[in-house]
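quick one before i forget lol
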Amino acid sequence: MIDQTPPDLNGGVKILHDPVRNKGTAYTEAERDALKLRGLLPPRVHSMAEQELRVLGNIRAKPTDLERYLYLIALQDRNENLFYRVIMNHLEEMMPIIYTPTVGKACQEFQHIYRKPRGFYLSLQDRGRVKEIMQNWPHKDVRIIVVTDGERILGLGDLGADGMGIPIGKLALYTACAGIHPTQCMPLMLDVGTDNEKLLNDPLYNGLERRRVRGREYDELFDEFVTAAKELFPGVLIQIEDFGNTNAFRLLDQYRGNTCLFNDDIQGTGAVAVAGVVAAMRITGDKLSGQRILFLGAGEAGIGIANVFVAALREEGMSEDEARRRCWFVDSKGLLVAGRGSIAAHKEPYAHEHEYIADFADAVKALKPTAILGLSGQPGTFTRAIIEAMANVNVRPIIFALSNPTSQAECTAEQAYTWSEGRAIFASGSPFDPVKLGNRVFVPGQGNNAYIFPGVGLGVIVSRSRIVTDDMFLAAARSLASQVTEADLERGRVYPALSNIRQVSALIAKDVAKMAYDNGFTDREEPEDILADIHKYMYQPVYPHYA
């Protein structure tokens, strides 16, 4: 149950400083008397809708997205219900501000724009005291923790403790997109240092002034965190976010079997990209089994997508070996092939027998893929020659430039459509504006993980599942693809409109929860109507009445 305890009736100004219960000028006349607020507020009582108008006016008057981000974070710090009302009522406008691409800029500037504490920090200095320290968190019914160590923030690299903006932003999306109550969300930074010289030399940097630690010290801190989280918040879901490749894969493998934990960069990205490919089949008229995907980038996101794609092909009856041969990778060393030399363990299943090719453009010509997926963090790498080569061998080439933020995208929407003569099926990780080409207007799909992780998390939390499985992400991908309408496809979009995301999340949550009930992952009894049960749980940004 959500804590609905009325505020201290003798609290006065304290209530106005509590973002969970503050209503600002919306306190009624009776509430102002009961809560001792007379004189502390302007005399006129405003409705929440009027407050929303004021907020929108201020946001739209700001000169830059970073200024808009700062305004919204300040609103979140003083009045969470109003913050989420604005976000939810204007999601397509606000999501690029509170998350990608603006959150990337915010993380890069975090030490300079820092104003008020938000989120929770654990560092190497806290080893041996983690459980004690975590009890300082003010909310005791935590259902989800998003944790990062800041090593690989979006496509921007090691931002150390400045990566806190990512867990904060992710959890804002959990609330806005899936209705997880704000007090049940805990953003957490695991500060183990940074190798970013610029930050280490910045006197305003908020993190540990030391090089990033690895090995035993790192593992002990992470394990102490997980153990404490499970003891303090039984059944809590832990999402590991923006860890470096080495730690991300091994931590997921180590903990997934005994902890309610997943990695959004691997599993969430995998599901959202595969959903886009599945939806694209309704445009091309082809079968999923007929696809050959060439990835640019073989990190968490690329391998995660390939794993979900292989699972989808296996579900359709293909052998695992054959399914993996439909996925090819070009990394920083060229085409991933058997015998190329030392290959990281997470890449080995996709190192196929083939002559070595050094260049991505040459790999496109040799392999003739039906789809290219960019996850390199290297802008402009899908050149005109590459997209024209894709268009030469495919009537409807699939071009997904998925690197975040927008500045890191492998190509723009306009480039993909123009260079393919309007035949590309395009999606990106961050938003692009619609593109007019001749008499047609194309609306690019945004392969944003926000379509997946909030719904998966909601289903896990409501069902009280003890673990999160890969099959849940495949189910989420198929659910998402099924919600793309014919109208979406006609406009070239392979994802639903963001304005529908709460319904998208609820339907994904239903499928995920059903898997938890059917497979015995929970001790909770399956409700008669799973979807109704999920909707009942979902938070709505409305003010409570105190008098």
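fyi The chain has a mean pLDDT of 95.
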